[in-house]
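Lay summary. Proteins are chains of building blocks that fold into shapes, and those shapes determine what they do. In this project we predict the shape from the chain. Here is one chain we studied, written as its sequence of building blocks.
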Amino acid sequence: MHGQRDIREIKRHDILELMDGAIERGAAYQANRIHSNLRKLFNWCLERGIIDTSPVLGTKPPTREQARDRVLTDDEIRAVLHVCAKDAYPFRQFVPLLLATAQRRGEVSQMKWSQLDLDAKQWVIPAELSKNGKPHVVPLNDFALRLLAEVPRFTDCDWVFTTTRRSPISGFSKALRHIHAESETTAWRYHDLRRTAASGMARAGIAPHVVEKVLNHISGTISGVAAVYNRYGYDAERREALDKWGTFLEDLEE
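And here is the predicted shape, written in a compact code that computers can read:
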């Protein structure tokens, strides 16, 4: 499935070969993402009459995924923060900012200066970047603001985290392996930092529905008819939650 092939020439065995290759590399979950993305692509082509049938039909995700519950301990968080503090831009600030904001890797990595209002201490994730398709306002605690103050700003570049000045950062796997080795922590991924932040806020006494608002979850403790009528954004409560979490991270660093 490489090169300039006509999409109408791609067959089911090509799809299976691509997923099998990911499995052989030990990237089982990536194989599932490949299947999902290809299914969407070929369904789009099918709807528009570009193809008559989808080669993904009759295939299924190759790996059964289990919900993760990994949460870093306080000692692990401290170790990760200490390693990042010795590192260089961009991961020196990027990884702690994942913890500080409790937002997704894709959202933080594609952060732009134009999305930030540092005076108002907030970051607006645009609808096209947000997973639920709605703009999301993230209050920035002092811990996050300090990290952003360290980030270099490049002329004619809106990306906060970039090594090319033309696109957002990459190289996540290599950076994660480095942090694992230097911090002597294992078996966690970037998304586990988001879960760790949510757990930390809950431990600090933040109500579950407020934590869900911080995470920008639509379904959860407020659902069904209640969700339709409850349009309160919990702005003050979300800021308090992230401020408490930021203070906790600052104390861990000391």
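What the prediction tells us: Residues 1 and 18 are 8 Å apart (CA to CA).
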